[in-house]
Structure formats: structure tokens, C-alpha cells
Design goal:
355 residues, alpha/beta, TIM Barrel, two-stranded antiparallel ribbon, 11 helices, elongated, binds iron/sulfur cluster
């Protein structure tokens, strides 16, 4: 086996082969260190010094990536700039809330090809998919740089997770594995802009994760203007896919509704949303757009948000209103943008009803 970039995401036999270990239990020892977040071989003290030195000479460290920038704010938000083995830069963010949750927002691609017009990441185009180990390492780096224990994961960072389904699902399996990070599937959310092929895959696999969809508007024509994905999969097809998903999985979906000042907050949009939601078990998450330089939108005023919320009340739509966290470090929704390599959209955490 060629020397891998990382030991994360590997099975025990693959670790054994990669490091040329004689005994299987040695791979388990290494794996236990990795799960604790120990990535430097010299710290793996139950392994012989000679072995540790050999591994270090072979790989340097157990991870492929390194943290090159770190910022935080008084809300407890933490943003890391992470350099990949091929010199790309991605970001990962940790947000905490008053309920004690510490949520890691993970990137799934370098850049994004979906072109949503409200999103900073879209402006950088698409570079490449992240491999599962690169997704897992974001979690490891965040945990290493925080005193809080990460409780939730959201695939809402840079990139469209459902355009990189294989590696995303591989990383989820690793996070969930009781012998690894043992994170409940109920605490893992995947957010998509509406790639139906990916939703169908989740429907087939019947994974117990949560699904969030960035809708922005239920006006089909307007959505096509704002989100090019809608020209490929329109809102009717999207709804059908979500109904099929709910039938298979039995889970409520989160509908992310990014509020764009003067664009999708009027009565017509409220009625279209109510109509589109009928027959779906969904929680709407209202997310005021965060200012991002160079994009043609404005953040709605509090009065505008109040007005739209009241409309949703009269239409009996279940929704939550998100307060922005992490703005001071550019780590809020649509704002994770990165002087490093421009742009990282953070669709937003889901304020779901449980966990
Ligand atoms: S909102 Fe999400 S899917 Fe759309 S361009 Fe940004 S990162 Fe890609």
C-alpha cells in the first residue's frame, strides 16, 4: 500500500498495511489515539519509540492537513483556516449555543459549482471534492482548538455535500462508528441546495441523519434566478423527492429560508411557501442574509423580518428565526469567507426540535 495522506478514514487493516505493522492490535492502538485527536506519532506513548520514529519519518503526522489560521469571538465561535495536502485552503467553524451544543460546520468541497447568487463560495468556483479524511480532519482540528466537546455536525460549510456524496457518507460512517467518534446520526445534518440525486441516495440508504434544504423561495421562477440548481431540479421535483425521503425515513426536514431584503419576504412569497410546504413535515428556518461584499443583496431589516414572520404565523407555518452568531469572525451564514481563498458559505445550523 502506498503511504496515505492521512490515517483518518482508514479501516484497521488499512492502517496496518499503511504503517507496515506486524500485529493487528497495533493498528487498534493507533486508531484509539486518532479517535482521541492525537495526531502526532511522538505522543502515542504506548507504541515503542522506534516505531514512533519510523512512522514520523514515513508520514510526518497522522493527518494530511494543518491549521494555518484561527479566529474566534466572544460568542464562542471559532473559525479555522485549514491547509490541505495540495495547498488548498478550506475553513471549518465551531459554533456554540445557549443550549450547550457545540456544532462543527464542515466543508465538503473546495469551492462549489452550484452558483447560488447569495453565496460567497459560489464566487470562487469549484476546485475539487474533499476526501472523507479531509472532512474528518476538520472535526479533529476544531476539537483540538476548542475546550468544548463537539456535540453536533453540520455539512453546511464550503461546497455542496450532495455533489460529493460518496466521501460525505464515508465520513459520516466514520463519525458514527462506535469504535471511532461515536456521534449519533441524529446529531448529524446534511444540507443541500436541492440536488435530487443526493436526496434519492439518502432515501435509498435510509440513514438516520437529518436533512436540510436551502430553499430561499418557493417561487419557481425566482428560485431559478437565485439558485441555478432550480433549472435542473425545480421546486416541484424537489418537493416530490422530499416527500419520498420522508416516506422512507420518517423524519422532519429543515427548510432553510435565507431572507434576502426586498426579494423573498413579501406576501406572495409567504403564500407560495405555504402552498409548497403542504404535505411536507418541515420546519422552516428563517435566516437573515449576512452581508457579503460584492453580492447583490441586502440584509432585511428587523421590521421586514417581523412582517414576514407574522405572515407565516397567519399561514400556520412552523418556523424558527435564527439569530446570527459568529459574525465578528465572518463565520456566520453566507459569510465564512475567506480572504484565504475566497468564500465559504455556511448555510446555517438547524434549530430542530430535538437534540
Ligand atoms: S449556497 Fe451552498 S450549494 Fe449554493 S453555492 Fe453556496 S456552498 Fe454551493
Amino acid at each position: 500500500m502506498n503511504t496515505p495522506h492521512s490515517l483518518y478514514g482508514l479501516e484497521l487493516d488499512e492502517i496496518q498495511a499503511a504503517l507496515g505493522l506486524e500485529k493487528a492490535y497495533q493498528a487498534k492502538q493507533i486508531c484509539d489515539w486518532l479517535t482521541k485527536g492525537v495526531t502526532t506519532f511522538s505522543e502515542m506513548t504506548n507504541i515503542s519509540k522506534a516505531q514512533r520514529e519510523r512512522f514520523t519519518a514515513l508520514m510526518g503526522s497522522a493527518t494530511s492537513s494543518s491549521v494555518i489560521e484561527k479566529s474566534g469571538d466572544e460568542s464562542g465561535a471559532l473559525k479555522l483556516g485549514i491547509k490541505t495536502h495540495d495547498g488548498m485552503v478550506i475553513e471549518a467553524v465551531l459554533l456554540t449555543d445557549e443550549r450547550g451544543r457545540a456544532t462543527a460546520c464542515l466543508s465538503s468541497q473546495v469551492g462549489c459549482a452550484q452558483g447560488c447568487s447569495f453565496c460567497k463560495t459560489a464566487t470562487m468556483g469549484f476546485e475539487r471534492n474533499l476526501e472523507a479524511f479531509e472532512i474528518i480532519e476538520q472535526y479533529v482540528h476544531l476539537q483540538q482548538h476548542s475546550t468544548r466537546t463537539i456535540t453536533h455536525l453540520v455539512y453546511m460549510g464550503m461546497g455542496e455535500p450532495m455533489a460529493n456524496t460518496t466521501e460525505v457518507l464515508k465520513s459520516i460512517a466514520h463519525f458514527h462508528d462506535p469504535a471511532r467518534f461515536n456521534i449519533s446520526l441524529r446529531r448529524i445534518t446534511v444540507s443541500t441546495c436541492g440536488l435530487i440525486s443526493g436526496i434519492e441516495r439518502l432515501t435509498r440508504d435510509r440513514l438516520g441523519i437529518k436533512l436540510a434544504v436551502s430553499l430561499v423561495t418557493a417561487d419557481n421562477r425566482l428560485r431559478s434566478q437565485i439558485m441555478p440548481v432550480n433549472k435542473r431540479y425545480n421546486i416541484h421535483e424537489l418537493k416530490d423527492a422530499l416527500i419520498a425521503y420522508q416516506r422512507a425515513v420518517g423524519k422532519r426536514v429543515t427548510i432553510e429560508y435565507c431572507l434576502l431584503g426586498g426579494v423573498n419576504t413579501d406576501e406572495v412569497n409567504a403564500y407560495k411557501l405555504a402552498d409548497w410546504l403542504s404535505g411536507l413535515d418541515a420546519l422552516v428556518n428563517l435566516i437573515p442574509w449576512n452581508p457579503a461584499e460584492g453580492l447583490p443583496y441586502t440584509t432585511p431589516s428587523e421590521a421586514e423580518i417581523d412582517r414576514f414572520s407574522r405572515l407565516l404565523d397567519t399561514l400556520h407555518i412552523t418556523y424558527t428565526r435564527r439569530r446570527s452568531r459568529g459574525q465578528a469572525i465572518d463565520g456566520a451564514c453566507g459569510q465564512l469567507a475567506v480572504p484565504l481563498n475566497k468564500g465559504l458559505e455556511y448555510h446555517l445550523l438547524t434549530d430542530d426540535e430535538d437534540d
